[in-house]
Design the sequence.
């Protein structure tokens, strides 16, 4: 899971495996495979980097 910040400043954890798309419109909108959407403070690139770091951490600790 990755930690993200809602526009109201609250931090939440998101299962990165459910992410379908990440768009900047100009807010960053994350669409999940479930159809749910989240608007977050992080940029599209920051979300990508968080997912990469998560995967790197998971696969190096096997």
Sequence:
């Amino acid at each position: 899971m990755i930690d993200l910040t809602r526009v109201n400043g609250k931090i939440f954890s998101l299962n990165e495996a459910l992410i379908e798309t990440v768009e900047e419109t100009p807010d960053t909108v994350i669409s999940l495979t479930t159809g749910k959407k989240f608007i977050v403070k992080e940029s599209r690139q920051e979300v990508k980097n968080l997912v990469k770091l998560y995967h790197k951490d998971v696969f190096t600790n096997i």
Q: What stands out?
A: Residues 44-60 form the longest helix (17 residues). The longest strand covers residues 19-24.
